[in-house]
């Protein structure tokens, strides 16, 4: 089972590395969205410091959602997905491998670029660490929940917009506690712990249930 | 022990006439209960907020607001429940029931938000605030919209039914969040405008009309959902002989 997991993971990452622009597009989308806000709302330091956590999280949400469309689409078009369904391996494990690959390619870069983005918003060093931790725990949850939506909207016309309609309401708890952790760190760094614990709980719950739901959704879509 | 074959009514052909006979009854019950509840709440219940200040009469919105908020959550449970039954037993009627319940649920969610805004303006000085419960009710509205959007985006009925059903079950995680969002986890983070309450602490002259309204809206939901269900049945089963008989019969009346 681990072998299957590793195989799918390695395959997806190799494929993505052959076409790096896809990965970079998501990253630059994130940077551009974050950079647009100061131009729109004005660049006073205090205001930016207050807006920063929320803006970064919303941008991360949108970036991860845009990338989701591609999670199953290419495999669906060339028939690989059907073959994966026929392998007799547990589909949830295959889905989990694909989600992990997806996160490594789109979520992890966002975590790593966070300090740079935080500088644009004059966040303190503590807030940067908290933001990185929160993003590191929170973005996998986004990928996991998003996989369900991506599987449900597979091959539909207007799938992208539909996907956002289905998935964004479910992202809200992650957004609230992710941005909350960073905002609270400005008051007292010790107060961030419950937020991070709660995000971790979301991650555990999502990694247990979301692959199963996404696998069921894939079966429905490919029936 | 007598065994009842519950699946007998799971056939659209068997349920169609039953639903037709039940609709007028539920309609009458709904009209009666809503009239009683509103009359009681608007005219018989004493003014609870303002004392002699007639401006506080706006609190009577509660007789529409709370029942519709309850129904919005309840109908989502109904929707998800029928979806789950449909996925497990593979019964066509369950999916139709779920699909028929969605617009009524969305309607009540909208009504709860709308009456909430009308209540908020005089009492809090704003139509909208990011109170946890308001926000989560808005999310519920998005869930209903998402369910209907996904269903209508898929042309193949079977796939649409099953995909939307799965979405409804996934969205179920939000219902306890909405229900419990009154207990704000951190008072510094969210200024909760709704206060914690339990039915025992509500004055009976408010509680009884509120419950009457709730049952009235519940009966209305039955009538509306059954009416919608009948058209869905006719549309989907339009190839079958019994539907042609029904249509032929209704055309002659």
UniProtKB/TrEMBL annotation, chain A:
Subcellular location: Cell inner membrane
Family annotation (InterPro entries): Cyt_c_biogenesis_CcmB (IPR003544), Cyt_c_CcmB_bac (IPR026031)
Membrane topology reported for the UniProt record: Multi-pass membrane protein
Biological process terms in GO annotation: cytochrome c biosynthetic process; cytochrome complex assembly
An annotated Gene Ontology molecular function: heme transmembrane transporter activity
Keywords assigned by UniProt, alphabetized: Cell inner membrane, Cell membrane, Cytochrome c-type biogenesis, Membrane, Transmembrane, Transmembrane helix, Transport
Predominant subcellular localization, coarse grouping: membrane
Membrane-crossing residue ranges in chain numbering: 21-42, 54-72, 93-117, 129-154, 161-183, 195-218
Coiled-coil stretches: none
GO terms for cellular component: plasma membrane
The keyword Nucleotide-binding belongs to this UniProt entry's keyword annotation: no
Origin: domain of life: Bacteria
The protein's role, per its UniProt record: Required for the export of heme to the periplasm for the biogenesis of c-type cytochromes.
Family (UniProt): Belongs to the CcmB/CycW/HelB family.
Descriptive protein name: Heme exporter protein B
Organism: Halochromatium salexigens (Chromatium salexigens)
């Amino acid at each position: 089972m681990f072998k299957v997991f590793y195989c799918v993971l390695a395959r997806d990452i190799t494929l993505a590395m052959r076409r790096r622009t896809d990965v970079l597009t998501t990253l630059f989308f994130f940077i551009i969205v974050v950079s647009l806000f100061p131009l729109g709302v004005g660049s006073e330091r205090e205001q930016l410091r207050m807006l920063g956590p929320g803006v970064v999280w919303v941008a991360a949400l949108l970036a991860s959602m845009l990338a989701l469309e591609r999670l199953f689409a290419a495999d669906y078009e060339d028939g690989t997905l059907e073959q994966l369904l026929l392998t007799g391996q547990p589909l949830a494990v295959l889905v989990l491998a694909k989600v992990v690959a997806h996160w490594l390619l789109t979520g992890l870069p966002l975590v790593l670029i966070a300090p740079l983005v935080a500088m644009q918003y004059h966040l303190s060093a503590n807030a940067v660490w908290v933001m990185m931790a929160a993003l590191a725990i929170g973005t996998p949850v986004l990928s996991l929940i998003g996989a369900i939506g991506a599987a449900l909207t597979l091959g539909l016309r207007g799938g992208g917009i539909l996907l956002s309609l289905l998935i964004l309401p479910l992202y809200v708890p992650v957004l609230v506690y992710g941005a909350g952790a960073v905002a609270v760190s400005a008051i007292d760094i010790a107060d961030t712990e419950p937020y991070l614990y709660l995000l971790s709980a979301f991650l555990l719950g999502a990694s247990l249930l979301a692959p199963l739901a996404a696998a069921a959704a894939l079966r429905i879509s490919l029936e | 022990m007598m065994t009842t074959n519950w699946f007998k009514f799971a056939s659209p052909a068997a349920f169609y006439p039953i639903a037709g006979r039940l609709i007028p009854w539920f309609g009458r019950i709904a009209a009666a209960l809503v009239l009683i509840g509103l009359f009681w709440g608007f005219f018989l219940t004493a003014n609870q907020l303002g004392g002699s200040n007639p401006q506080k009469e706006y609190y009577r919105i509660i007789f529409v607001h709370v029942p519709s908020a309850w129904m919005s959550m309840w109908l989502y449970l109904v929707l998800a429940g029928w979806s789950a039954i449909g996925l497990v037993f593979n019964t066509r009627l369950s999916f139709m029931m779920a699909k028929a319940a969605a617009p009524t649920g969305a309607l009540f969610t909208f009504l709860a938000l709308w009456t909430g805004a009308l209540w908020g303006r005089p009492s809090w000085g704003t139509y909208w605030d990011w109170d946890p419960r308001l926000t989560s009710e808005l999310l519920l509205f998005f869930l209903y919209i998402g369910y209907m959007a996904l269903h209508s985006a898929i042309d193949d009925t079977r796939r649409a039914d099953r995909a939307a059903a799965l979405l409804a079950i996934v969205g179920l995680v939000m219902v306890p969040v909405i229900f419990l969002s009154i207990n704000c986890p951190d008072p510094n983070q969210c200024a909760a405008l709704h206060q914690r309450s339990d039915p025992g602490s509500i004055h009976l002259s408010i509680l009884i009309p509120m419950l009457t309204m709730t049952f009235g809206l519940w009966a209305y939901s039955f009538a509306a959902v059954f009416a919608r269900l009948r058209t869905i049945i006719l549309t989907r089963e339009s190839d079958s002989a019994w539907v042609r008989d029904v249509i032929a019969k209704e055309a002659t009346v």
